[in-house]
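[audit] Reproducing an earlier prediction to check determinism. Same input, same settings, fresh worker. If the tokens differ from the archived copy the diff job will pick it up downstream; this log only records the rerun itself.
[audit] input (172 residues):
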Amino acid sequence: MARFVDPLVVGRVIGEVVDLFVPSVSMTVAYGPKDISNGCLLKPSATAAPPLVRISGRRSDLYTLIMTDPDAPSPSDPTMREYLHWIVTNIPGGMDAAKGEEVVAYMGPRPPVGIHRYVLVLFEQKARVRAEAPDERANFNTRAFAARHDLGLPTAVVYFNSQKEPAANRRR
């Protein structure tokens, strides 16, 4: 009998970015026509614009979305773990992230070397969040942010992989 192993465990998202949690909200993430599934590979050029992030839930519920790269600057030496790519707070349930308040502007993936994981973490808020952008994007800590704003454990997480695109081959 085959045993199911959560892709968030296999991809080391649980452990390195978030603690073990029980998903309680549906979150879908799409870059253009492509829906993201855990561990899929996307080119940086396909992720330059913010994704459409749809969240289930009641409109009276509020959510915070955080996107980080735990592999910066390189997977073998992640001295800038986690590199912050996006924070949106106060997203109403049943809506998309564009309906929330952008605290840190979206920055698309720009992996300099190796295959990087880009993790989108959704938290249900207990109350309206008044967050300020951190001074730097490097060395952000999702767990510390969640603790500071009383967010608890995540309600949904999805991640994708990306690597530097090769320059166009020029044969003459």
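[audit] rerun output stored. Observation attached for the diff report: The mean pLDDT is 93.
[audit] end
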